[in-house]
C-alpha cells in the first residue's frame, strides 16, 4: 500500500447506507444499468444469500461483490490470490471514492500495522486479503470483532484440486463457514468445468447455495490454432495481423528458457518485449509486471506463472507456442485479452511432440489413477480443440457444459472451413513405414528418417540399415515433407501413433493403428494440411484479419480529442502512480470524445463516470474538451 488509509468511504456510500443496488451502481460506479445476471446475483447477496458465480472474464464479476458490500452494513472482505491484483483493485476502488485496503505478505510491518489500525477504527469498507493471511488466527479473530458485510472468494477455481491453478492455501477457506455462519459467501471464477464446480461448492461449504452461470463465451475473441511448423514466422504473422505491431499482447511459452529466447528475438524485431517466469528474482518480476500493468504497449513472453488476475482491460492478443494442459487453462489464459469487450485475437501453436509429451507426463506422474484419468480426458479435449475440423468455440464451450452454434463466425475454422478428404491410404503408408523400419531390438526411428524412406531419399542412414530395399521406400513421393508431417501429427492426435519423447522422438504405433492398417477404420484428414504451409492456415495467417477481428488500437485512435484525452489520462496516471485504465477505460474516453460534454452535468451522463471521478477529474477533462472545440 502506498500510504496510510488516506481515502475514507466518501459520503456517496455513507448517505446511501442500505440503498438500492441500482443507485450504488449509477452514483458510485457511473453505470446506467446492470448486465446479464449481475442484478439477480447482487440482490441475492444483499439479502444475505451465498452462492457461486461463473462469469467470463470481463463480464463484470467484481461488481457482484463490490455493490453488495456497499449496500450491506459492515466490512466487505475479498480473498484474492495475487498481490499485484489486490493492489490494482485497491487503487481502482479508491478512484471510486471507496475506502479500500489490502493485507498481504509484501506489506512492511508499518504498513500492515496501519491497515490493522484502520480496520479497528472502522475506516475500511473493502479489504482485499490473501488466503494465507486471512486464515491466520490473528486475522480471523480481528474480523470476528467486526461486522462483516460479506466474504468474496475471487479466482475460486484455486480451491479445487481439479482446478487448473489449484493453490493449497485456498483449502483453509473452509473455516469461513465455521467462524462466520451467518455471513454471505460468494465464490467467483471465469473458468470451471462441472467437476471443479462441484468441488468448489464442497470445499467452501456452499451446500445448496445457487450457482449463477453467466455463460463462458467471449465472442469478441477470435480464436485460432495451427500446427507449429515455423514458429517465429507464424508468430510474427499473427502479431502483425492482430496488432499492427502495437498494443499489448502475451506470448505463453512452455519453458522458462523459451520465454527469454522469445522476448529476445521479439525485441530484435523491434517490439518492446519483456519476459516473465517463476525463476526470475522478485525485483525483476515486479518490474516486468509493473510495466505491463501501467498500460505500456508491451509484449510479455511468459510462462503460466504470469497472468492470473490481470486487471488490464486492453490486452489485444494472446498467443501460445505450446499446447496447454487443458481447455480450462487455455481459456483462462486467452481470456486475459479483450476484457474491455473490444476485438481481440488468440492463437495456439502446437506440435505432435507436445501431445506425446503431455501424455507421457500424465502416465509418469505419481497421481492416483482417477486423477490421471481426468487429466487424460482434459488433455484429449485440448487436442480435439487444436485439431478441430468444426467450430473450435463450440468444442471449447462444451468443455464447460455449454453448447454454442454450429458456426460461431469468430474462429479460424468457421471463417475458413477446412476441407476433409479420405486420408486412409496416406495414413496406411506412414504407419507401414514406421513398422517396417523397426529395428530388430524393437526400437523405432524418428519422423525424419521415416520421411526419408517414404520419399525415397537414399541417405547414409537409409543405406546403413538397408531401408532402401523396403517395399515402403519411395511410396510417399506424391506428398511433401510438410504434408507428411501433417499426417503424422493427426495420427498422433487420434492416438494411432505415439512419440517416445524419452528416446529422441521415436515414432511408435499403438493398438489404434491396427484397424487403420487393416482398412477397418477410415482416416479423414484436413486437405489444407497436405497442400499449404502451416503459416497460411486460419489461426496463423499472415494476411490481414477481418476488421472485426482487429482492434489493437481503440476505435477512435487518431481522433485529435480522443488522443488528447489519452495524453491527459497518462499524465494523471503517472502523477498518481496508477495504471491509466484505473482512471478511465478507453471506452469512457471514446464516449467523452464523441459526445463532447459542455459541463460537469453532461460529463456525469457518460457511463463509467461516477460521483467520485466526476469530482476528481471534471475540471481536467472539460479543459481538454474545450481546448478541442470546433
List the helices and strands and how they pair.
Elements (H helix, E strand, L loop, with lengths): L10 H5 L5 H9 L8 H9 L4 E4 L8 H9 L3 E5 L3 H13 L4 E4 L5 H12 L5 E4 L1 H4 L2 H8 L3 E6 L21 H5 L5 E5 L4 H10 L7 E3 L7 E7 L3 H13 L4 E5 L3 H13 L4 E4 L5 H12 L5 E4 L12 E6 L6 H8 L9 E7 L1 H13 L4 H18 L5 H7 L13 H4 L4 E3 L1 H13 L10 H8 L5 H5 L16 H13 L3 E4 L5 E4 L3 H5 L6 E3 L1 H4 L28 H17 L3 H4 L2 H10 L4 H5 L6 H17 L3
Parallel strand pairs: 1-6, 1-7, 2-4, 2-5, 3-4, 5-6, 8-13, 9-11, 9-12, 10-11, 12-13
Antiparallel strand pairs: 14-17, 15-16
Helix pairs in contact: 3-4, 15-16, 16-17, 19-20, 25-27, 25-29
CATH class of the largest domain: Alpha Beta
**What value does the Rg take, in angstroms?**
27 Å
Per DSSP, the total helix count is: 29
Number of strands: 17
Strand percentage: 5-15%
Helicity, as a percent range: 40-55%
Overall structural domain count: 4
Could you state the CATH homologous superfamily of the largest domain?
Answer: P-loop containing nucleotide triphosphate hydrolases
Contiguous low-pLDDT stretches (5 residues minimum) are 1-17, 532-552
Strand order of the largest sheet: 3-4-2-5-6-1-7
Determine the CATH topology of the largest domain.
Rossmann fold
How would you characterize the largest beta sheet? 7 strands, parallel
CATH architecture of the largest domain: 3-Layer(aba) Sandwich
Quaternary structure type: single chain
- Average pLDDT rating: 85
Principal-axes geometry comes out as globular
Structural class: alpha/beta
How far the N terminus sits from the C terminus, by CA atoms, comes to: 43 Å
Amino acid at each position: 500500500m502506498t500510504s496510510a488509509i488516506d481515502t475514507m468511504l466518501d459520503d456517496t456510500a455513507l448517505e446511501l447506507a442500505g440503498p438500492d443496488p441500482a443507485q450504488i451502481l449509477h452514483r458510485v460506479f457511473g453505470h446506467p444499468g446492470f448486465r446479464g445476471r449481475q442484478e439477480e446475483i447482487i440482490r441475492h447477496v444483499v439479502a444475505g444469500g451465498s452462492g457461486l458465480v461463473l462469469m467470463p472474464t470481463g463480464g463484470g464479476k467484481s461488481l457482484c461483490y463490490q455493490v453488495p458490500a456497499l449496500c450491506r452494513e459492515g466490512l466487505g472482505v475479498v480473498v484474492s490470490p495475487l498481490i499485484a491484483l489486490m493492489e490494482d483493485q485497491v487503487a481502482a476502488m479508491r478512484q471510486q471514492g471507496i475506502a479500500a485496503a489490502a493485507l498481504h505478505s509484501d506489506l512492511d510491518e508499518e504498513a500492515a500495522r496501519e491497515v490493522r489500525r484502520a480496520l479497528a477504527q472502522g475506516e475500511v469498507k473493502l479489504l482485499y486479503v490473501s488466503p494465507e493471511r486471512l486464515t491466520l488466527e490473528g486475522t480471523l479473530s480481528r474480523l470476528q470483532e467486526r461486522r462483516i458485510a460479506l466474504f468474496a472468494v475471487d479466482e475460486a477455481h484455486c480451491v479445487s484440486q481439479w482446478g487448473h491453478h489449484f493453490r493449497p492455501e485456498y483449502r483453509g477457506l473452509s473455516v469461513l463457514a465455521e467462524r462466520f455462519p451467518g455471513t454471505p459467501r460468494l465464490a467467483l471464477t471465469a473458468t470451471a468445468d462441472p467437476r471443479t464446480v462441484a468441488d468448489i461448492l464442497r470445499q467452501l461449504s456452499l451446500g445448496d447455495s445457487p450457482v449463477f452461470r453467466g455463460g463462458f463465451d467471449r465472442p469478441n475473441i477470435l480464436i485460432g490454432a495451427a500446427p507449429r511448423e515455423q514458429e517465429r514466422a507464424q508468430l510474427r504473422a499473427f502479431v502483425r495481423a492482430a496488432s499492427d505491431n502495437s498494443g499489448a499482447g502475451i506470448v505463453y511459452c512452455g519453458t522458462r528458457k523459451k520465454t527469454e529466447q522469445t522476448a529476445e528475438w521479439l525485441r530484435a524485431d523491434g517490439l518492446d518485449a519483456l519476459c516473465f517466469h517463476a525463476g526470475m528474482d522478485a525485483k525483476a518480476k515486479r518490474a516486468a509486471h509493473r510495466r505491463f500493468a501501467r498500460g505500456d504497449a508491451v509484449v510479455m513472453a511468459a510462462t503460466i506463472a504470469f497472468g492470473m488476475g490481470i486487471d488490464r482491460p486492453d490486452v489485444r492478443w494472446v498467443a501460445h507456442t505450446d499446447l496447454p494442459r487443458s481447455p480450462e487453462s487455455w481459456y483462462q489464459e486467452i481470456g486475459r485479452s479483450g476484457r474491455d469487450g473490444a476485438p481481440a485475437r488468440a492463437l495456439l501453436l502446437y506440435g505432435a511432440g507436445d501431445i506425446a509429451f503431455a501424455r507421457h507426463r500424465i502416465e509418469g506422474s505419481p497421481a492416483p489413477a482417477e486423477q490421471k484419468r481426468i487429466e487424460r480426458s482434459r488433455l484429449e479435449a485440448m487436442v480435439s480443440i487444436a485439431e478441430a475440423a468444426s467450430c473450435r468455440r463450440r468444442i471449447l464451450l462444451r468443455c464447460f457444459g455449454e453448447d454454442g452454434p454450429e458456426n460461431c463466425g469468430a474462429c479460424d475454422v468457421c471463417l475458413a472451413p477446412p476441407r476433409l478428404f479420405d486420408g486412409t491410404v496416406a495414413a496406411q503408408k506412414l504407419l507401414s513405414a514406421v513398422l517396417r523400419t523397426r529395428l530388430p531390438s524393437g526400437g523405432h526411428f524418428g519422423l525424419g528418417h521415416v520421411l526419408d524412406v517414404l520419399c525415397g531419399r537414399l541417405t547414409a542412414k537409409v543405406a546403413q540399415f538397408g531401408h532402401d530395399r523396403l517395399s515402403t521406400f519411395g511410396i510417399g513421393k506424391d506428398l511433401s515433407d510438410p504434408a507428411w508431417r501433417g499426417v503424422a501429427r493427426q495420427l498422433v492426435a487420434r492416438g494411432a501413433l505415439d512419440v517416445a519423447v524419452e528416446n529422441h522422438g521415436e515414432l511408435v504405433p499403438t493398438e489404434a493403428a491396427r484397424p487403420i492398417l487393416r482398412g477397418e477404420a477410415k482416416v479423414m484428414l484436413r486437405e489444407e494440411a497436405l497442400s499449404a504451409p502451416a503459416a497460411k492456415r486460419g489461426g496463423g495467417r499472415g494476411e490481414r484479419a477481418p476488421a472485426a477481428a482487429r482492434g489493437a488500437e481503440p476505435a477512435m485512435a487518431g481522433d485529435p480529442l480522443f488522443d488528447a484525452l489519452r495524453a491527459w489520462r497518462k499524465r494523471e496516471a503517472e502523477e498518481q502512480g496508477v495504471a491509466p485504465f484505473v482512471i478511465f477505460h478507453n471506452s469512457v474516453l471514446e464516449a467523452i470524445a464523441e459526445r463532447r460534454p459542455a459541463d460537469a452535468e453532461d460529463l456525469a451522463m457518460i457511463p463509467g463516470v461516477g460521483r467520485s471521478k466526476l469530482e476528481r477529474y471534471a475540471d481536467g477533462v472539460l479543459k481538454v474538451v474545450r481546448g478541442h472545440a470546433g
